[in-house]
Design brief:
It is built from 5 helices and 7 strands; from the N terminus they run αβαβαβαβββαβ. The longest helix has 14 residues, at 3-16. Helices cover 33% and strands 21% of the residues. It has a 7-stranded antiparallel sheet with strand order 3-2-4-5-6-1-7, covered by helices on one side.
Length: 175
């Protein structure tokens, strides 16, 4: 274990009370959006996620202080016993909200995104199914910060990228 990894684990134990553990996307085989005509807005990003994700997926929204109406919705639709995900942010300690990635829930999140600023909604979005993280979207909805798992069906990934006006690129080969 290198010095940086030891420092991150030490810091996360201090903040979270545990090491920086949990599921995360396999970055080495990830796909990324590239050459977007323009950055998608949050409502359209949530709507297009419905086309990307296979049935049975869950979302995890990493947030700070969310609007009361949004928090009520997220708590009412919470997934029971969600898995541990490796958070992106360490400080301040974020709140993690897990909900089913249904078309209805994504449409509701899109409506919230039309009425609230992003800090009142979320700043990271993850999608996962079973024990695999399929979407890791830091600084949502910035397309430069989106990583897609190679486990997602190619036709859905291409359709999603096209809907957002972007092309795809694969992770660089390790050196």
């Amino acid at each position: 274990m290198g010095l940086i990894e030891r420092l991150v684990n030490w810091y996360s134990r201090r903040v979270w009370g545990e090491a920086n553990e949990g599921m995360r996307l396999d970055f080495q085989s990830a796909q990324y959006l590239d050459s977007c005509a323009e950055a998608p807005d949050a409502p359209s990003a949530f709507r297009h996620l419905a086309k990307l994700l296979p049935d049975g997926c869950n979302l995890c929204l990493e947030a700070g202080t969310v609007a009361a109406e949004v928090q009520e919705f997220l708590e009412e639709h919470a997934v029971a016993d969600p898995p541990l995900l490796q958070p992106c942010m360490f400080h301040p300690k974020p709140k993690l909200y897990h909900i089913a990635a249904t078309a209805e829930n994504l449409a509701k999140l899109a409506c919230f995104a039309e009425r609230y600023t992003l800090p009142e909604l979320c700043f990271q979005v993850y999608a996962y199914k079973d024990e695999a993280v399929l979407v890791n979207w830091h600084d949502f909805p910035d397309p430069d910060c989106l990583m897609l798992s190679a486990k997602l069906p190619d036709e859905r990934v291409r359709s999603f990228a096209s809907a957002l006006g972007c092309t795809l690129r694969h992770a660089p080969e390790p050196q």
